[in-house]
Write a structure and sequence with these properties.
This protein is of the alpha+beta class. The protein is 46% helix and 16% strand. It has ten helices and five strands. It has a five-stranded mixed sheet with strand order 2-1-3-4-5, sandwiched between helices. Strand 4 and strand 5 form a beta hairpin. Helix 3 crosses helix 4 and helix 7 packs antiparallel against helix 8. The longest helix has 21 residues. The protein is elongated. It starts with a helix and ends in a 13-residue tail after the last strand.
Amino acid sequence: MDKREKGSIHTGHRSRVKEEFLDHGLSGWPDHRVLELLLFYAIPQGDVNPLAHRLVDHFGSLAGVFHATYEQLLEVNGVGPNTAVLLQLIPAAAARYLAASASFEGQIMHIWQLRELLLPMFFGARNELAYLVCMDSKNKVMACRKLGEGIADAVHITVRKVLETALACNATRVVLAHNHVSGVAFWSEADLATTEKLKSVLREANIQLVDHLIFANDDMISMAESRLLGDDMPG
């Protein structure tokens, strides 16, 4: 009898949480409650609210939980492989969705269209990534190719890789983009040196380096807008 009474405290709780989400979305929900709903699908039974609180307390926020590595998640008491995989899957699936939703088939008329195109590529990234946007002479995007991935703040962009990628796409104009996982959207001396070298080599192949963009979280800076390339921006 006592066990039945104890168990009845949470009877229907999961259904009520799901119904609330379906009716009103996540507006106004604290981070731990969003996590609780997600945890329902990794842990079929039991009260997952305490685990949701532990995760937020441990990583500081919902975003912190999603940025944690698989190994870091497993260090939290109560997190098993299924839960860790689910929490890794959420930002990866979100990035895929954003990338699919942010494609351009026409001309790039303004540099900030490139932000919309490229931002999903860096969403949730824990390492530095580099991409090359290849365009024709009318600024029509032909391809967006990943150049490389490195450990935090250590992606290596080779001139040969950039040139080969641009030539393979038959591009006449390209935009280089990479992220700073440090969270600071500002170019380093190495960024400036790499840009100058790439600009010179690409020019020999009749390819214009239109811009070098640096992303950090939701921020982006443009070397072209800062007049560091000496060439006009798209459009």
